[in-house]
Amino acid sequence: MNGLNLKFLNEKEHGVVPYLPYGVTTLEMKIAGDKKNLTGYIYPKSRSDGANKYHVGYVDEDYGAKNFLVLWGGGRQEGVKIDKESLGHRLFLQVLHQGGDISSPTITFEHSETVLPVGTVKLEPAEKGSNLVRMRMQKENDFYEISFAGSEVPLYYSRWFPPRPSENRKIRYCHIEVPQISIKFKVEKDEVSRNVASDICIIMDGDKIAEISGDWRYSWPHAELFTVLGDRDYLILRFWLYWIHENYSKSFWRGVDSPTNSLRSEDEQTTRGLWESFSIEAPDIERFDFLLDTKKRLVSWVGTDFHYQEYWYMTKGIAPLRAKIANDVGTIIQVLKNLKNRIKPPKADYDPMEFLKKILQEQITEELKLEDVPEIGKYSISNLDKDGDMTTRGEGFTRKHVPYLTNGKTVAQLVSSIVTN
Predict the structure, then answer these.
(1) Which residue has the higher pLDDT, 376 or 212?
(2) Which long-range contacts (CB under 8 A, 24 or more apart) does 355-360 make?
(3) Beta strands, E only, 342-418
(4) Which helix (H) or strand (E) holds 335?
(5) Considering just the CA atoms, what is the radius of gyration of the chain in Å?
(6) Is 280 in contact with 378 (CB distance < 8 Å)?
(7) CB environment 377-408: b (16+ within 10 A), e (fewer)
């Protein structure tokens, strides 16, 4: 080692973390070591490292099939950035199991300054079986369509607050008859990659209940289903978009033709154009958690992220719900709107889903007011520093991809503080 080492906070035993087969699993980590060495980046030993303009990691054993992808965000191609401020703070990576065998691989992490291992984690499936819920993707006319197969559905947990088996919080599954849910979008392909090429429609029992617009360009999707209360009444459709490549349009100015292209080599025409170099954040990963009321066939709440903060929106039963990923001027607008929660975040990090469970179980109406959310302290998950103070980091404050809701409103108690604190 090099004086640095990783501790996995959601491990079930030393160096072993349960993962969601066919899903995305959070690796929740802290790094320890000499402060003088806390600089540089952490990344999987097995990774593309820019080969074919890709920036993504793999498990140690997965050189051929690429069944697992290790994903990170913030547009930092080198990996997860660490510095002196990272000491004692949480760090995050996402592991996507795309399919194939439900195996137990390992991921070895290295440190950029020394190119030495700083930790190894073994991934073990949280559940095995042939009927685990999973997404299926097929082409239908000009569209790609995602649907779901299987009836063993995991209990929901927040992206930023994964179950910690050491604290007796585990990934659990329930047997559920999954309703008809589909996701449709267009795709464009080239020799290297395929990308989302249209707004994304979410459909339940034949009715459009939500759509995702905005800056989906050059991304690829993944979808999961969770149960909230252990039955099918309230499900969460977690929809991810991730950006891992730099194979962009052949237009110098994004989205339009330019005579400048005739002066550029074929290789240059598949790299960032001028506008793309300013506006596209890759690698990155964003998500929406659509809380589905399956009896009413609508989205009643939506959870998403604003630069390492979790935000929940009340939808008032609007259909179709309009989710969006901001870019360019829209990013600036969202930053300004959320400035108050950045400068003065809530007093403690907590798992907002605990509040939503309370709301659903007690059937609190859409007229929810601040004083209506009960027992805040009971569900608090503290991430205070060693002196009991809350520190604020500007991690990713002005980054590019910002998911939000255009026809819903945030609820103050359902906004976490910055989870890297």
Answers:
(1) 212
(2) 355/379, 355/413, 355/414, 356/228, 356/291, 356/301, 356/312, 356/414, 357/228, 357/229, 360/228, 360/229, 360/234
(3) 402-405, 409-415
(4) helix 329-337
(5) 21
(6) no
(7) eebebebeeeeeebeebebbeebbbbbbbeeb
Domains of the chain, by residue range, sit at: 1-126, 130-246+282-421
Top-ranked range on mean pLDDT: pick from 73-77, 342-346, 362-366? 73-77
pTM over 0.90: no
Structure tokens given for 165: 């088996």
Q: From the centroid of its chain, how far is CA 319?
A: 24
Query: Does residue 11 carry a pLDDT above 90?
Result: yes
- Stretch 318-337: mean pLDDT, rounded? 74
CB 75 within 8 A of CB 399: yes
Query: What is the greatest pairwise CA distance in the chain?
Result: 65
Q: How many residues does the chain have?
A: 421
201, 184 Cβ separation under 8 angstroms:
yes
Q: Are residues 267 and 192 in contact, defined by beta-carbon separation less than 8 angstroms?
A: no
pLDDT digits (tens, 9 = 90+) for 277-290: 556 788 999 999 99
- Please provide the DSSP assignment of 151-207 as one string: SEEEBP--SSS---GGGT----EEE-----EEEEE-EEE-SS-EEE-S-EEEEETTE
Of residues 105 and 368, more confidently modeled:
105
DSSP 36: G
CATH of 1-126, one of 2.40.160, 2.60.40, 2.30.30, 2.40.230: 2.60.40
Of 312, 393, 406, 304, nearest in space to 345 by CA: 393
